[in-house]
Write a structure and sequence with these properties.
heterodimer, A: alpha/beta, Rossmann fold, 27% strand, globular, B: mainly alpha, 11 helices, binds adenosine-5'-triphosphate, binds magnesium ion
Chain lengths: 245, 249
């Protein structure tokens, strides 16, 4: 089977500046001072692949690099080293609240997001109602997102992500703030994606989700892949570092 | 409902004209009536209006592009798309406002009884050059703003200085020769004088263009090359920095 995602030797570090140099003035006042940076290795030599049609889980402690990895897969961050290949159309659901203009209402945010994700105007018109219907936010379509609850934002973001044509869906902590009824709705879509042969990468702290849906899971600790394999083997095996959540 | 919509459009139109016309009103009062600069300048009203409209377009366009990545960039953290779309789409709004404002100019041209001339067509490539110059400065400052959050204050100072240095409300001919040569390095001054020359013809101060100051039509090459250089440099810089916008905004 062809692989949907191939990740080979991916590393990514961020610089933590120890003196804040975010003002041009400081370069003018202290032109010869070098800023002290500390390197924060968020991902180190990460290698794995996901088969087409696979439901793939990623878990690990807070700050272990899961969201960073997903962003690199989505082409939002650039890796310092390594190679990433995604075959097929990709739709990302990145952490909550990110990417919405909170000063705009849902209507405009749906339009902006869907257009930038590559939907044509006709596709958007056709799917606009479906997005609203799935999120059950019809009443609030003209309300500014800054007045949305976090669950409402999540509903909106998920509804947009699954209405963009995709072969590969990236989901980062999608169910964290959803209520029971929306979780059930999401599970139904998961089942549908499995039947349709879509590839799904799910980042979550909920181990029962990993066991319930995933074909394989990956454990990420301190930016390093500690284990990949069947959920039962990876999750129940003893490993260093306490899992959060 | 339809009436309301028409009223809304008119309100929007008046609003977009308010700023340049306020500038224009004050400067016109001071220079045409109190200082009598107008005496030396045929069509002083149009001369001033052209300068102000072009400058408002320049400063507004750069002004909206500068913070666009930082303020509108949260979507860059969610989706992968060319980040240049953010400042470009911000500039579309000021372009539309500018086109609307030009209609006010047309009214004044009618009042001033300036007859249409083929040279008016030159205005189109000049406006294209101005937009290119705006894009260059806007992309450069927009990318820098992601790193340095005081670029906005520097730009505010810069735009004030440029306004006074750019011969918008005084004839550039009153500058000494060396200062004229310096002023025309600025692509904005070259564009503004060429537009005035094209629209109003050879009347007094409108005669002074980059071509006359640098002796020869080739003189325009200096500011045009500068505008092009800034644009290409800014584009390259924006491309390089753009890879990291998502993690820095
Ligand atoms: N834009 C950024 N700039 C600097 N550091 C960053 C940036 N994004 C992430 N990091 C750092 O990278 C590391 C990994 O963060 P990441 O968000 O990937 O963790 P995570 O595994 O998703 O955690 P969580 O379970 O809390 O969501 C953290 O140390 C974080 O501080
Ligand atoms: Mg995360």
């Amino acid at each position: 089977m062809a692989s949907a995602i191939e990740v080979a030797g991916v590393s990514k570090s961020f610089l933590i500046p120890h003196e804040q140099r975010t003002y041009f003035k400081e370069y003018f006042l202290h032109p010869f001072r070098r800023t002290q940076y500390e390197r924060n290795e968020a991902l180190r030599d990460v290698t794995f692949s996901v088969e087409a049609g696979e439901f793939f889980g990623i878990f690990g402690p807070n700050g272990s690099g899961k969201s960073t990895l997903l962003r690199i897969l989505a082409g939002i961050y650039v890796a310092d080293a390594g190679r990433v290949r995604v075959n097929g159309l990709l739709s990302p659901f990145i952490e909550l609240g990110v990417g919405f203009d909170l000063e705009l209402n849902a209507r405009d945010n749906i339009r902006i997001n869907a257009t930038l994700a590559g939907l044509t105007r006709r596709q958007l018109d056709a799917r606009f109602d479906e997005i609203l219907e799935f999120s059950e936010l019809e009443r609030f379509v003209d309300q500014k997102l800054k007045n949305y609850s976090s669950g409402m934002l999540m509903r909106l973001a998920y509804s947009i992500a699954i209405q963009i044509p995709f072969d590969v869906l990236l989901l980062d902590e999608v169910l964290a703030v959803g209520d029971e009824s929306f979780q059930q709705k999401c599970f139904a879509t998961f089942e549908r994606f499995k039947v349709e042969g879509k590839t799904v990468v799910l980042v979550t702290h909920q181990l029962d989700l990993l066991k319930g849906f995933c074909d394989r899971v990956l454990l990420l600790e301190h930016g390093v892949v500690s284990a990949v394999g069947a959920p039962a083997d990876v999750i129940d095996a003893p490993h260093e570092g306490a899992l959060v959540g | 409902m339809r009436v309301l919509r028409v009223v809304g459009v008119i309100q929007g139109y008046v609003w977009s004209l308010a700023k340049p016309l306020a500038y224009f009103g004050v400067l016109w009062l001071v220079f045409a009536h109190l200082l009598r600069t107008a005496n030396q300048t045929e069509h002083f009203t149009l001369f001033l209006l052209i300068g102000i409209l072009l400058f408002t377009f320049f400063s507004d366009t750069v002004g909206v592009m500068l913070p666009s990545i930082v303020h509108g960039g949260s979507i860059l953290r969610r989706l992968a798309f060319p980040p240049i779309l953010v400042p470009l789409s911000a500039s579309v709004g000021t372009c539309i406002t500018f086109l609307v404002n030009i209609s006010a100019l047309v009214v004044f041209i009618g009042i001033g009884r300036v007859s249409p001339r083929p040279a008016w067509l030159l205005v189109l490539p000049l406006l294209a050059e101005l937009y290119l110059f705006c894009l260059g400065v806007g992309l450069l400052l927009g990318a820098l703003y992601v790193r340095f959050r005081d670029i906005g204050q520097l730009w505010e100072l810069g735009v004030q200085l440029l306004f006074f240095a750019s011969a918008i409300f005084y004839p550039i001919g009153i500058l000494p020769g060396w200062a004229e040569k310096v002023a025309f390095v600025n692509p904005f001054v070259q564009i503004m004088q060429d537009v005035r020359h094209a629209v109003l013809g050879t009347s007094g101060p409108n005669d002074v263009t980059a071509a006359s100051v640098y002796a020869g039509a080739g003189g325009r090459a200096i500011p045009i090359a500068l505008a092009l250089l800034i644009f290409l440099g800014a584009l390259a810089f924006f491309r390089r920095e753009g890879r990291y916008f998502a993690e820095r905004v």
